[in-house]
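Backbone description:
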Amino acid sequence: MGRAYLIVSGKGGTGKTTVSTSLALALARMGRQVLLFDGDVGLRCCDLLMGMEDLIVYDAGDVLEWRCTLEEAATPHPQCQTLRLLSAPQMASPGDMSKKAIASLIAEARQSYDDILIDCPAGIGRGLKNVWQAADEAILVATPDDASLRAAERVSSLLFERRQLHAGLILNRVDRFLIGVKEEKRPGDIAAALDLPLIGGIPESYDVYRGILMHKTALECDAANVRRAVTRIARRLAGQNVRFPRFYHVIAPPTNS
């Protein structure tokens, strides 16, 4: 029985979809059967980031309208056959898809896949509420700036209040230099302040954007440190005990003696 993960963010611009596509590929390369479900109805883009835009024949809307099966709509990744992409309908709105139908679709996917990653729309709108009933866990993607972290805190509270889901945190665009000069907080300190378990961090890298322009995931970009970070996060999701880099750790406040 597979597990379904919501991949969420409080606001746009955090790199949530980049993280979703990269983690899906990393998990699949570990030999796991992975379904990436693009849940952003009307604004899908996972196919573009994975270089699969010309391969999509059916989408989730076709499955829910009985025009095809889930197996037919789940498109295999061209380089990794254990990863499949289920695209969102492009000419639709979140109101066109019911929570019950999506929950049924995810329940069916659990029978064939080890991991179902649901790339949710940013924010706390109808698109997120359509899919959150179907998930076992939530992964919150944020960047280390205050605006993103405030939004992340709000989404985390909402997921717990409405669904009793405890979100784990992935920090994207972590800049080790800025941490060193104390202009950016350490990932461990950020996670502690938000009272969220830290799943991992992905370094800031110009190579990630270059990869996006070439329709490649962060796992396929030229930055080795980014590829290692994504792989470490995937291994943690798969239940492996993977150590965090030392500079991530919480710095304890000085004690009065």
